[in-house]
Structures are given as C-alpha cells and as structure tokens.
C-alpha cells in the first residue's frame, strides 16, 4: 500500500464493507506490530502471562489460574486460541482440554485491551500491564463480584511469573455515558478525566481479543456526528453489533478535564518531574487549542486512514513528542523543548553512550538514535544524561531550575485557563489551592527555608569527601561565612576552588546537606574551623542531631495539612554552635567552680552561657526552616518566635534541645529545654499571661498573648518595678522563672497575685518599712515609709483602700444578675526583716484603728485642666484648699493648716485617706494601681511641704 491509498468513506454516498474491512485490517496491523514489540521486551515468563491472559479469561478450569467457580463470567467474544497458546495452557495442567465456543451469541466478556507503555519506546523491564476487561452491561452484582475475584487471582498469578498486571473492569455502556466508579489504569487520576483517558486509550491500547473498537471505523472528519455515523453503520448492517464495542468519541473535551489532568500531573511532578512533564505539557497544548482540540488519538486515527503505518512514528511517546515539538517550535521556546527532549530520553532509558547488551540494538535504541541524531546531541551530552545516577549537586541544581520553572509555569497556565474558561468548580478551586500550596512548599524560596534541590532528578547526591571551611572576615566578623567544597582540600587549596554551597550560619549549611543527602554515613568530612570553636566532636554530633530530629525520607504531606496554615512539627534547638561560652577560661586552661550554676547567670559575675541558638524546624508542609539567633537577646528572641509559631489549636511540635560546646554543654541544653518547658506550661492561651526571666543582671518580661508574644528587656530592678507597676486592662498572671529574683522578696510576693483581690505586703528595714501592693489586675505598687509600729504603718493604707473600695462599689449596678464580686484585701508580712534573705510570708489581720485615736481626714479630688496638667483640690477635715485659691502655694497652705492642728507642731508624715479620680480617668471602672500612684505622688508633695513649712 502507498500513501495515496487514503480511505475517506462518505456516509452520505454509501459505505463499502470492503473499505471498512480494509480499515480494520490496518488498525490490526498496527496493533500486531505493537504487540510483537511488547513481547520482544518481556522475559519468557512475562510473555507467557501476556499470551495466556485472553485464554484464562475465556475459560473456567479448576486447575488453571483465575478459577473461582463454574458460574464465573468467562468467554471472550470472537476469541479462539491458537495452538501455541493451548500448548502453554496444557503445560500448566495436563487435564485441560479446550472446547471451542464458536457461535455463542452471549459471551459476557466483550473485549480485552492492554493499555499503557507496553509496546512503546518507553517500555521498561518493570512496566506494568494495565488490562481493560470490557464486559457485558447486563452482568449483575454477584457476577461482577466473581469476575473481579477471577481478575484478582489472575493478577496474583501474573505476579508469581514476574509480571505486574492490573485488571480493570469496564462496562462500555456506562463508560460511554461518562459513569465509572473506579480508576481504569494504574496511572489514572480519578473519575473526572473521561475524554483524556479515552484519548490515551485509543492511541496506546493494544487489542488482545474480543470485539474491536467501533471508533476505529469513524473518520476524523465525522467525529462531530459520531453517534449518527455509528447508528448508520450498525442499523444498515455495514458492521455487525457483536463484532464491535463502543466506548465513545473525542469530538469535544470539556475544559474542566484539562484542569483535572493538569492538577494530577503537577501533583505527581512534585516528586517525579521527569515522568510528568511530558503529559503536563500535552495538557497545556490541548488546553491552548480549546475548544478546537485535535487530540493525539485523532491524529493516530487519521494516520491509519491515510495508510501512514510506520510503527515508529505511530509510537505513542513519539507522537506526544512530535506534538510538543510542533507547539514549542511555533512559540520559539527552545529551552523548554530541550527539557522535553531530555524527559523523553530519560523516560526511554536506553543509554546510547554505552554499547548495547549482546551487541544487538533493540528497535527502541535504534529509534532513540534517530531522534537524538536529529536533535544534534553529541557524545558528551549523551554521556551526561546516561550518568544521571551519578549526578551530584552542580548538575542537579541546574536541572532543578528548569524543572521547577516548568512546573511553576504549568500551574500558572492552569490557573489562568481555569479562570478564563470559568471552568473551576468549588472542588477544583479547593484542589487548585491545595496544589498551589504543594508547589509553594516544595519549590518556593523564602528566608530561612532550606532548598530541596533533588525532586526525583538523581537517585543519590551523597559525596565521598567534602571540605567544610569557616571563612572569617577580619575587618567585619559579621560577614563571616561557612563554605562547603567538593573533595578533600587543605588550607592552601580551598581558596582556589568554587564552593558547592555558602551560608552565613553553619547549621543552615549542614541542614541543606542533610535535606539533600549530600552528607551521608560514608562521607569523609575535612574541617577548617577558622576563627570558630567548632571541633570534630561537635560537628559529628550536630549532624547526628539533624538526622535524628529530621529523619529522611520525609513522609508525604496529607491534603488535610495543606488545607490549614503550616505549623511546626519538629523543632531542634542547637545552642552555641561553634561557640565556647567560657572561651577565655578554656584558653587559660582554667576550670571554674561556683555554687551559682544557672546557665543564664553563671558564677558570681552571672555570665550568660547561652550565646547563640540555631532553630531547625520541620513544619506540617514538609518545609525545613533554619533561623539563627545571636546577640544579647538571642534566647528571648528565639523563645518569642517559637511561641508565636505555635498553632492556636492542634498538637504542639516535638522540641529537642542540644548543645555540644566545649564547656557545660549538658547543663546549658538542660537549662534551655527547662525554660521552654516552663514557659509552655504557662502558655494557656486563655489569658494574657506573663513570664519573668532573669538573664545576667537583666530582667525580661514575656507577654504570653497567643500569636503576639513579645518581650521587654529591663536593665535593672527599678526598671522592672516600673514595668510591673503599669496598669493593665485585666487580670494578668505573672509566672517567675525558677532562677529569677533569687534572694529578693519579690520572688515570694509576685507569684501570689490573685484576681479580684488587693494584697498588701510589708517588710521591715530597720526604722523604715517597705509597703508592696498587688492590685486586682496584678499590677505592683511599692513605697518605702518611716516605721514606728505596724498600726501606724498599715492603718492609713487600710483607710485609703476602704475609701477606694467604697468608690468602686458605688459605680457598680446592683440589679445585674451577676454583679462583680467585691475586692478582698489581704495583708502579709515578709520575714525575716532585712537585711536577711527573705524566706517566707506570714498572713496578718487587717489593722483596726482605736476609736480613741481618730485619724485626720485628708481627701483629694483630681480634675483635668488645660493641656495634660491636672488640677488638685484638697480637703482637710472637710475644709477646702483649691488651686483656684492658692495656686502654686496649695501644698504649703495645706501643710501649715495640718501643722496648726497638731500638738507641738509635729512633722510626722501625712497620708491621704480618700481620692477621687473619676474625672481624670473617665467614668468607667478604674484600676487600683491608678489610685496608688496618684496617692504616692500627692503624699510626696504634701510631706515635702510639711518638712519645709
């Protein structure tokens, strides 16, 4: 036959049965050639499986593989085994005798097809056999269950022969209507890509027996009226109905299928990009032609009608390549075309740079040689691709860039196509979002993220020998860096080589090596520590810690994880990497001993032994992140960021803390781990909890508000007292670190804070006493006063607090169902008296003033005035003294009046007994700390005037 013998049947002019028979013969000729090619690449036992499968589905024999029962559906329409097949069956069991079933009108199996890469240029030793078992629509559930069981047994038998077979039951009537319940190939993405799956079936399937596809006989130009054409063929008996099966047409492909197929290939491409890029780009080609899509199956059919039966050019993978080449050439995208060529070459997996086995070239190798010759690939390029199993960091990094670009471009194209076609359902929209997150997690660069460079490109990036160098910058130590070199280089050699990787921090570099498998158990590492304190012992332990905390390979990310924001899953804290916190003592060979062993306040000088932290975290999206914390607030900054990264609900990450520095490593790691555990135990998320930590002489106050944790550094105790004395919007518990405020009475007082309670503490300091109050929001107020006796010390404060409570209660609504509880007032003495170390608190009863010693009432009313200045009016035993009358001389006038009331003109202190701030701080409920601050300020001014009067 020549190319001039193109068949163009015209239904309107009548159809010649001989022409239809000629068409069917052409398809069967291509089919036979593909089947022969498939057999050539199979082992003897695999060939046996493929040869016997039609017979084993055609018969039920108790001693043959696949037998379930005598009633199991069996019998393949029109199938008659040849003598070789029967001989192979009799080798399995000599008792088998075949009985022909010619003329049986109702055989339950209508067709058997082999689908996938068998018989193509990409067939490999491990290629599986996807078999479509097309059955009669009228089979009931029990019959189908038995048929499924028969297929399962055949799959098991095939596996015993070294063949991986998958049988898929297909009801042609339901399939044509678009209904199917299960996947129909081992590479099937689900039920949404009906037409694209059918396209793949028509251009790759090898017919093994039964009826042949009716689609073969419908010309491409009649595809749009496929149903009408088929009706004519069958109704006018040009074709007998029991000779064909109908799986449908390819006249139109809904745009939603391109989205579904693209998402599936992108999903697979994240792990194995070479396998997916070809199909992914084919989906792009189809989508770009929508709605006039000329799918490859139609091109295949047109070639058969035109009598172009070259098996090489009709090879499914070659057809895909030709279509992609045509598309990319037209767009001038040479880099993408080269990538596609490499993908096809690696898929075929015939190493052209080395001679073939037995010096005989397979048809696959000959075809690949012709293709690469047309691509003008030289021997060096072939050798590079053939050595992919030995590719290391440099080659993989370059290839990754191209593959990631392709996958990212495809995702953007897919998203844009979905929007332009308005073809995104709510389900697809969610799937696109999840897929976008998968791509982001796998490939997107961001600060601190360890880049994964080997998504299925090379099997092993492990290096035999590497050199790790700390490159110090003498002029600017902050610009120091770590570099990794290939091979074993000495100090004179490494400056002349380009490193594989540079990073500012060592752990960032080691994490990169671990994540990408660059360093494995057999790697020999040479170390040049430079100005760092890193040694071989610490380096080996750091690598072991990474391997234990982040075991590889990482488990797949579940879709449920991608529907949520990412959250840390594993966290490794490495303290003082390459740093000796007692370096000066190590250099002098001095070993320090001290009773103060806290790593955050070590020895008498209270040294902080936590100099730096490197946090390595693996999140729920499998992103590996490294953050380095250095400087005076390294620990607090790390703790803050860790707490802010925790999810509002859900499991907390597993935390490991390790330290391998030269001095006190175990104690340092335990202290940091202990601190994190203590803070987490108080991180309830229900209230604005606070945590107080002391590092060296400084205090750090953590505000534990979920998602907004912050810390304030306070240089000394007075600064801490000022901070603790600020008003708060509500009750805020304060937890103390186990080593904070050692020896201070505040270490006893602060943990006692209670909501809805005023607590008064006093401690004697010789002829003075220190009063401390924790108010209902746990704000702290402190004042030092002269001490004569407990009565004169506490009674003025008690009277002031009683008036405060009276004013507070006067503003409460009494008719509320649950009115606020009244504030309790409790008293404690701190013992023993100073200067001894405070050890305990003892409760005290509230003081009671004797009736024979009435107190002098001094009331203050504070009101807003111009600007920020407040205006004060004082009442002494109800006599008014206002700034309107006395101006700047107010306090002196009051002092003279008080002294005039005292016998002997005594100048002992005067205390406020009542204070009104309602106009200054608004009409709402005012916190007690406001009153106490104003009280202290006014009393100081008044008592200074008393002393000067």
UniProtKB/TrEMBL annotation:
GO biological process, one term: cAMP biosynthetic process
A Pfam family matched in the record: Adenylate_cycl
InterPro entries reported in the protein's UniProt record: Adenylate_cyclase_1 (IPR000274), Adenylate_cyclase_1_N (IPR024685)
Enzyme superclass (EC): lyase
Top-level division of the source organism's lineage: Bacteria
MF (Gene Ontology): adenylate cyclase activity
Protein name, entry field: Class I adenylate cyclase
């Amino acid at each position: 036959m020549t190319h001039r013998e193109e068949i163009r049947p015209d239904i309107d002019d009548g159809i010649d049965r001989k022409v239809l028979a000629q068409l069917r013969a052409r398809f069967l000729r291509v089919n036979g050639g593909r089947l022969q090619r498939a057999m050539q690449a199979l082992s003897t036992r695999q060939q046996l499986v493929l040869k016997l499968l039609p017979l084993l589905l055609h018969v039920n024999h108790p001693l043959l593989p696949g037998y379930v029962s005598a009633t199991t559906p069996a019998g393949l329409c029109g199938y008659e085994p040849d003598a070789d097949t029967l001989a192979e069956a009799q080798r399995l069991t000599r008792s088998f005798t075949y009985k022909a079933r010619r003329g049986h009108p109702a055989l339950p199996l209508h067709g058997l097809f082999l689908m996938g890469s068998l018989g193509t240029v990409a067939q490999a030793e491990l290629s599986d056999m996807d078999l479509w078992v097309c059955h009669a629509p009228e089979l009931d559930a029990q019959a189908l269950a038995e048929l499924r069981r028969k297929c399962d047994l055949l799959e098991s038998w095939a596996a015993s022969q070294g063949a991986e077979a998958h049988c898929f039951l297909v009801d042609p009537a339901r399939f044509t209507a678009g209904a199917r319940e299960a996947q129909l190939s081992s590479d099937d993405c689900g039920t949404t890509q009906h037409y694209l799956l059918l396209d793949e079936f028509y251009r790759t399937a090898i017919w093994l027996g039964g009826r042949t596809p009716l689609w073969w006989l419908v010309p491409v130009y009649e595809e749009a009226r496929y149903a009408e054409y088929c009706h004519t063929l069958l109704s006018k008996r040009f074709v007998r109905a029991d000779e064909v099966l109908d799986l449908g047409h390819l006249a139109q492909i809904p745009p939603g299928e391109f989205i579904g197929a693209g998402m599936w290939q992108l999903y697979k491409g994240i792990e194995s990009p070479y396998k997916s890029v070809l199909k992914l780009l084919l989906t792009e080609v189809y989508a770009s032609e929508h709605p006039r899509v000329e799918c490859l199956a139609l091109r295949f059919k047109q070639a058969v009608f035109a009598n172009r039966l070259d098996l090489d050019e009709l090879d499914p993978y070659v057809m895909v390549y030709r279509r992609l080449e045509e598309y990319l050439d037209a767009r001038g995208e040479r880099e993408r075309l080269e990538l596609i060529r490499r993908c096809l070459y690696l898929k075929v997996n015939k190493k052209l740079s080395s001679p073939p086995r037995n010096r005989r070239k397979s048809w696959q190798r000959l075809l690949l040689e012709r293709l690469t010759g047309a691509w003008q690939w030289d021997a060096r390029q072939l050798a590079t691709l053939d050595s992919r199993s030995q590719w290391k960091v440099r080659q993989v990094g370059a290839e990754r860039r191209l593959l990631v670009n392709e996958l990212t471009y495809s995702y953007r194209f897919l998203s844009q196509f979905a929007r332009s076609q308005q073809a995104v359902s709510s389900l697809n929209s969610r799937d696109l979002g999840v897929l976008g997150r998968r791509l982001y997690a796998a490939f997107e660069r961001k600060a601190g993220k360890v880049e994964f460079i080997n998504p299925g490109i090379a099997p092993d990036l492990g290096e035999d020998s590497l050199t790790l160098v700390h490159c110090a910058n003498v002029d600017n130590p902050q610009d120091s860096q770590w570099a990794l070199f290939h091979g074993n280089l000495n100090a004179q050699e490494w400056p002349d080589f380009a490193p594989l990787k540079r990073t500012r921090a060592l752990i960032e570099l080691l994490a990169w090596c671990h994540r990408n498998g660059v360093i494995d158990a057999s790697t020999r590492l040479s170390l040049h520590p430079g100005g760092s304190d890193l040694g071989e012992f610490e380096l080996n332990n750091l690598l072991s810690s990474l391997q234990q905390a982040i075991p590889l390979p990482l488990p797949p990310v579940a879709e449920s994880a991608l529907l949520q924001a990412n959250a840390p899953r594993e966290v490794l804290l490495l303290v003082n990497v390459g740093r000796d916190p007692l370096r000066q003592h190590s250099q002098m060979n001095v070993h320090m001993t001290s009773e103060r062993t806290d790593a955050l306040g070590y020895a008498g000088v209270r040294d902080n032994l936590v100099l730096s932290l490197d946090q390595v975290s693996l999140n729920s999206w499998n992103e590996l992140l490294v953050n380095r914390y250095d400087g005076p607030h390294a620990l607090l900054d790390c703790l803050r960021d860790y707490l802010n990264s925790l999810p509002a609900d859900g499991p907390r990450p597993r935390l490991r803390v390790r330290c391998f520095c030269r001095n006190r490593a175990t104690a340092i790691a335990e202290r940091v781990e202990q601190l994190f555990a203590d803070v987490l135990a108080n991180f309830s998320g229900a209230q604005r909890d606070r945590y107080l930590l002391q590092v060296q002489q400084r205090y750090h106050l953590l505000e534990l508000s979920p998602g907004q944790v912050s810390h304030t550094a306070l240089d000394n105790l007075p600064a801490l007292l000022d901070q603790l004395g600020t008003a708060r919007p509500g009750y805020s518990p304060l937890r103390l670190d186990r080593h904070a405020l050692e020896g201070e009475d505040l270490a006893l007082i602060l943990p006692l804070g209670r909501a809805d309670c005023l607590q008064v503490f006093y401690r004697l300091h010789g002829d003075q006493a220190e009063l401390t109050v924790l108010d209902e929001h746990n704000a702290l107020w402190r004042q030092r006063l002269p001490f004569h006796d407990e009565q004169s010390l506490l009674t003025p404060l008690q009277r002031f607090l009683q008036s405060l409570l009276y004013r507070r209660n006067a503003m409460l609504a009494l008719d509320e169902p649950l009115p606020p509880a009244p504030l309790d007032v409790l008293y404690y003495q701190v013992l023993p008296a100073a200067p001894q170390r405070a050890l305990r608190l003892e409760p005290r009863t509230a003081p009671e003033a004797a009736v024979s010693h009435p107190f002098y009432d001094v009331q203050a009313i504070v009101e807003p005035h111009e600007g920020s200045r407040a205006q004060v009016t004082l009442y002494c035993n109800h006599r008014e003294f206002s700034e309107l009358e006395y101006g700047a001389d107010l306090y002196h006038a009051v002092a003279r009046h008080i002294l005039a009331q005292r016998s002997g003109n005594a100048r002992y202190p005067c205390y406020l007994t009542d204070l009104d701030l309602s106009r200054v701080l608004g009409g709402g409920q005012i916190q007690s700390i406001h009153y106490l601050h104003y009280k202290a300020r006014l009393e100081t001014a008044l008592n200074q005037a008393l002393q000067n009067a």
